[in-house]
């Protein structure tokens, strides 16, 4: 069977799932593409912080995927961060937990499904370093298969699954350069290792993903930026141990603005996807709100 036909067959046998963004198995993954932007590499002082993300994602086509494809995702993602006073290897220690809440509408090839549920729980630990205008973060994130997941059936082959039904380990590096002249150059890079979906015997291939931001501070409180994300699958998916030799990729870019006050900030962006291969293609709007307790 040719790779494209095999991939399409797998999509209809297993159902198509998604949460915040999409990649790998059935065009879906747990990485929040585009969520981070300005000062992504700078951790705050010790304390407790609430970060709340809202994302609307719409895709009207699936490259090398099923016909008549439409995907609409609305996600509210609270992230609780605890920065401790402890230091290891010269870096400040912190922890975080993320629990997505997702509403997903999906249609493909004349079939449709809708789901609203909790997504997969994410837990992470991190170290942050600061040296003059340079800021770094090193982190390890675990994505647990806790979200709602329904195994597709012959009568319901297209399923709007919120959870992925597999676990992920994700090392992360982030960096920001913020000199006094107002420039803000930031990036967050990650690599994801996925285990097998026990219900489908499908293993999503390893992939590289990253957010980027090139911004400028217009005033003490207001910044503008060009932001986006990249995704590149570097290992093929597997079904029952056999490679499916199609790998996803995407590049997204768009404008962003940020307003920051004493103990809170809000960032908004609109990103359009291009250079898409073997995955949904669309656009996304994101809001990120940070509150320091």
TrEMBL record:
<dbReference type="InterPro" id="IPR025737">
    <property type="entry name" value="FApF"/>
</dbReference>
<protein>
    <submittedName>
        <fullName>Phenol degradation protein meta</fullName>
    </submittedName>
</protein>
<feature type="signal peptide">
    <location>
        <begin position="1"/>
        <end position="23"/>
    </location>
</feature>
<dbReference type="Pfam" id="PF13557">
    <property type="entry name" value="Phenol_MetA_deg"/>
</dbReference>
<keyword id="KW-0732">Signal</keyword>
